[in-house]
Amino acid sequence: MSNKTLIWVGAVVAAVIVVAVAFYWITGTSLAPAGSPQSGSGGSATEQPIATSSVAVPGVNATGVAAGVAVPSVVAAGSVTGDTSYRSFNIKESASAFTPSMIIVNEGDTAHINLTASGGKVDFTQPDLGLSLTVPAGATKVVQFDADAAGKFTFYCKSCGGPSKGPVGYIEVVAQ
Question: 45-174, what's its fold?
Answer without folding.
Answer: Immunoglobulin-like (2.60.40)
